[in-house]
């Protein structure tokens, strides 16, 4: 019984580790029938995306995950007090 649980657990761990597709987190995505939605999001600029999409029946769109992400907050600086 323990051997069966071990084998089943190993299968689940391998499935979870390798089950997700690699997805870049850049601002622009090629969206077409090959990649679906949101598409291949491996382009930092719209120009890169357009160059890669030329000749395909797709288009470039902004990555929805990139758009909805909150902008980074500026780091707070500690105030230095000078002795008088």
What does this structure look like?
- By secondary structure, this protein is of the alpha+beta class.
- It has a domain at 20-68.
- Helix content is 36%, strand content 14%.
- It is built from 3 helices and 3 strands.
- The protein has helices at residues 2-18, 46-53, 64-68; strands at residues 28-31, 40-43, 59-62.
- The chain has a 3-stranded antiparallel beta sheet.
- The longest helix is centred in the N-terminal third of the chain and has 17 residues, at 2-18.
- The chain is flat.
- Residues 18-22 have low confidence and may be disordered.
Summarize the structure.
With 84 residues, this protein is an alpha+beta fold.
Taken in chain order, the helices and strands follow as HEEHEH
What's the overall geometry?
A: flat
Structural class: alpha+beta
Q: Classify the helix fraction into a percent range.
A: 25-40%
Gyration radius (Cα, Å) is: 22 Å
Mean pLDDT: 74
Biggest sheet record = 3 strands, antiparallel
Strand order of the largest sheet: 2-1-3
Beginning-to-end CA distance, first to last residue: 76 Å
Q: Tell me the total number of β-strands.
A: 3
SS field, number of helical segments: 3
Bin the strand percentage. 5-15%
Unreliable spans: 18-22
Topology:
Blueprint lengths: L1 H17 L9 E4 L8 E4 L2 H8 L5 E4 L1 H5 L16
Antiparallel strand pairs: 1-2, 1-3
Notable traits:
three-stranded antiparallel sheet, 84 residues, 36% helix, single chain, alpha+beta, 3 strands
């Amino acid at each position: 019984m323990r051997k069966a649980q071990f084998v089943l657990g190993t299968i689940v761990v391998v499935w979870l580790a390798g089950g997700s597709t690699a997805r870049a987190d850049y601002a622009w995505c090629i969206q077409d029938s090959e990649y679906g939605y949101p598409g291949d999001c491996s382009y930092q600029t719209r120009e890169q995306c357009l160059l890669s999409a030329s000749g395909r029946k797709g288009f470039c769109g902004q990555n929805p995950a990139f758009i909805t992400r909150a902008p980074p907050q500026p780091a707070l600086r500690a105030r230095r007090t000078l002795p008088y």
